[in-house]
Amino acid sequence: MQYADLHIHTTASDGSDTPSEVVHKALEIGLRAIAISDHDTMDGVLEAERAAEKFNLEVISGVEVNTFFEGKEIHILGYLIDPCNEKFVAKLKELQGDRMTRIKKMVDKLNKLNIKIELERVLELSSGGSVGRPHIARALVERGYVLTLQEAFTNYLGVGKPAFVSREKLSPKEAIRLITRAKGVPVLAHPGLSKINTYLLDLVNEGLKGLEVWHKNHTPLMVEYYAEIAKKYNLVPTGGSDYHGSAHDTCNILGGAVAPFDSVQLLKNAHQKLF
């Protein structure tokens, strides 16, 4: 059976592997398709496509849009959007500006807690990509305030923690509309983590087309449950490892969770219906 890892991050956002490195690793483990789905950017997609040109590996364009709803972070994946779509790319740049404002506020909060890290170093760690909390976490590890990236989130950067700043400007429904307008297929990421089951029907009515059934942090019972939910609402079942690179403490195994290759065709079918 052929498999696809449809949730992968690269150095274009908060991953530690370049898009080309991801492609080569995907080939090594025998994946049939991958989706580059960085946070609020599609800058890594074209590089991955070029790296895979001569191989039997399909690269799906993707993006992960971070939203906030009722005190929870909700991530919406968007698939098969043209990475050269000027209007969509411009909106992503706007979201990256929001990210920068948020990162500055988090660094300020840490400094007020007498945890001295510099914004300039956080930006250096992002290597010019879409900056995010993992880059702050890496700075905290560097300075010895925590031992691991996960500890940084547990103690300071996670929802409700002392240095957390929410993104309240974009709701899940707005993200779905944004992706749909760009002729993309909106999919709810890792529903087992966001735990918004009672809100799911509202998202379906707004235009949600898929559900991430297979994910590194989904238990077998969760997979079974969300597979049934996807079937009930006629949503495309997708899945992926949420890979962030080998330098990360968690989500560091490419192909650690996969979807059957059939999911790729189902995404394409959903995409065709948008035209």
TrEMBL record:
Residues 4-69 form the Polymerase/histidinol phosphatase N-terminal domain. It comes from Desulforamulus reducens (strain ATCC BAA-1160 / DSM 100696 / MI-1). Pfam families: PHP (PF02811). GO terms for molecular function: 5'-3' DNA exonuclease activity; 5'-3' RNA exonuclease activity. SMART domains: POLIIIAc. InterPro entries: PHP_dom, PHP_domain, Pol/His_phosphatase_N, Pol/histidinol_Pase-like. This is PHP C-terminal domain protein.
